Amino acid sequence: MKFYNFLIVAFFISVSFSCGDNSDVFKGDPVDNMDNEVVTNSNFPLSDPKNEGSWVLNTDISDEFDANVLDEDKWQIQGKDGVYKSNFIGRAPSQFSTNNAIVQDNKLKILTKWEPDFNFHPTRTQTVNGVVYKYENITTAAVISKKQFRYGYMEIKCKSANTQITSSFWTTGLRSSELDMFEMFGGHKTSASWRKRLKFNIISWDPDNYYYQPDGKGPVYTDNIQVENNTADDFHVYGFEWTSEYIKIYVDGVLHPEGTITKAALTNNGANPEKWVTDTDYWIWFDSETFPWLGIPTAADLPTPAEYQIEYIRVWQKS
Q1: Is residue 222 part of a domain?
Q2: Rounded average pLDDT over 65-83
Q3: Among the ranges given (154-163, 180-189, 207-216), the one the predictor scored with the smallest mean pLDDT
Q4: Any idea what the CATH number is for the domain that residue 235 is in?
Q5: What integer is the mean pLDDT of 85-106?
Q6: How many domains does the chain have?
Q7: Is the peptide bond before 93 cis (omega within 30 degrees of 0)?
Q8: Residue 13's pLDDT is what?
């Protein structure tokens, strides 16, 4: 664990959520030391160094990843012992492998490999935009918290993988909803915007909800949160304050200018209550997936495994 004093300096410019490569981005100066590394204090959120929010660390879900192996009392590796939460084996053509979630150099690493000899599911497929994809060639991984929680401040220090694969931090509830804090695509081959983007989503998985995602009426909410730097270049700290009334998104301790989603605004002051679906208990997920509509890695892209690296996850809740 690291304990440092730190300074927060914020400078904002306009934000554009266009998919073009010339979109403007959030300019929040990170807290850094002489090595230009974001410095954090493990006691409190980076955005609240005086703990004015009266936060208490939830040690059941927080992890510094400073042991030699993953703490499997806290974390489930998707597929371990044949167990797949939500029956999710990965997004085709990639499939989750238990060998691709490792703790190394005091970090959790989600690896993406070109591995055509892997024991892929022989019959299962996924269809995207009319194209049928089978599971082949690419392995990734998913790690899921074994305990749930409701509301709090989630802070992750990470660097996305530098290939055409997502680096994601998200949650699921029991047959209820999903909150995607981010889906990063730091290795996009052509789009500078995607390389500097946190794809944020709120999704309903309740079939009785009008915005149930598989019916095509969802997602409840989606946004492209543009940041200053390519997410695969350096480690940055991403914070998410989740309450019954709002969600706020922080980058390196600074509230993003487009990072406040309120219940009042989303539901039109209660006129459309089915749009607020996050009042539930959640499990945390870290994973990498192939998104065919954004490009799929080739063998040439993966001469060595790509790494989505997570230095820590800290979850605080109100005392």
Answers
A1: yes
A2: 97
A3: 207-216
A4: 2.60.120.200
A5: 97
A6: 1
A7: yes
A8: 32
Separation CA 93–CA 291 (nearest Å): 9
CA distances from 260 to 181, 223, 266, 308 (A): 12, 11, 11, 26
245 pLDDT above the threshold of 80: yes
Percentage of the chain exceeding pLDDT 90: 85
Q: Domain for residue 252, yes or no?
A: yes
Token couple for 316: 């605080």
Signed CA dihedral, 43, 44, 50, 52: sign only: negative
Contact (Cβ atoms closer than 8 angstroms) between residue 159 and residue 298? no
Residue 319 in contact with residue 120, Cβ under 8 Å? Answer: no
What is d(CA 124, CA 202) in angstroms, rounded to the nearest whole number?
Answer: 27
- C-alpha to C-alpha distance for 119 and 125, rounded to whole angstroms: 15
Whether the CB-CB separation of 90 and 125 falls below 8 Å is answered with no
CA distance 136 to 226: 32
CB atoms within 10 A of CB 189: 12
How far is it, in rounded angstroms, from Cα 41 to Cα 52? 15
pLDDT, residue 241, reads: 98
Q: If we measure between CA atoms, which residue out of 179, 120, 126 comes closest to residue 154?
A: 179
Instruction: Quote the domain boundaries for residue 247.
Output: 55-61+146-318
